[in-house]
UniProtKB/TrEMBL annotation:
The gene is lipB. In the reaction, the free carboxyl group of octanoic acid is attached via an amide linkage to the epsilon-amino group of a specific lysine residue of lipoyl domains of lipoate-dependent enzymes. The active site is at C167. SUPFAM superfamilies: Class II aaRS and biotin synthetases. NCBIfam families: lipB, PRK14342.1. Belongs to the LipB family. The lineage of its organism: Bacteria, Pseudomonadati, Pseudomonadota, Gammaproteobacteria, Orbales. It catalyses: octanoyl-[ACP] + L-lysyl-[protein] = N(6)-octanoyl-L-lysyl-[protein] + holo-[ACP] + H(+). Substrate binds at R69, G70, G71, Q72, I73, T74, Y75, H76, S136, L137, G138, G149, L150, A151. InterPro entries: aa-tRNA-synth_II/BPL/LPL (IPR045864), BPL_LPL_catalytic (IPR004143), Octanoyltransferase (IPR000544), Octanoyltransferase_CS (IPR020605). This is Octanoyltransferase.
Amino acid sequence: MDKPIVKNLGLQDYLYTYDMMHQFTQSRHQSTADEIWLVEHPAVYTQGKVGKAEHLLQQTTIPVIQTDRGGQITYHAPGQQIMYILLDLKRLKIGIRDTVTFLENSVIRTLADYQVLAATQANAPGVYVNGKKICSLGLHINHGCTLHGLALNVDLDLTPFNYINPCGYQGLQMTRLNDYVENINHNEVRQLLAQYFIAQLPLTP
């Protein structure tokens, strides 16, 4: 089985990317190569499919978009590295729990390269540094194929997280990589995330 195709899409409108993800998934067939999309979005709140309106604590000028991913409300903006994974799990013979673990591990290993110690928390998907959330996860499965992925805070302004209960957790504090590391190379972060994620997939040599 071949490695996923990695695409660096730069800064893209959220809804445009959302639509493209769904078009890709709906049109793929048994031999379609998996893809990983590395992207950033202009400022936007996204709400999970079971997201509760009360987790938006106050109205702002930032748009709120309903999605079909798992999880509650979160925030995206430039300076946050997003990695969308478009995988055929049936073909890879891996489950959703494995996929979530691979995503979390890719972040933990990337941060370790910057000497930042990160960890997961039981019953709270994502990655944390000293109890503060640095990466959010959300997936959707369609006919055994994944959409969405992870959002790693690199050097974005965290202020808009104050206007929501991030991922549905009241009082959850957020953090970002540049709280611990100076002069971050965004391209390096992108490459490490994709590299560490792909290294965990059960690909045939």
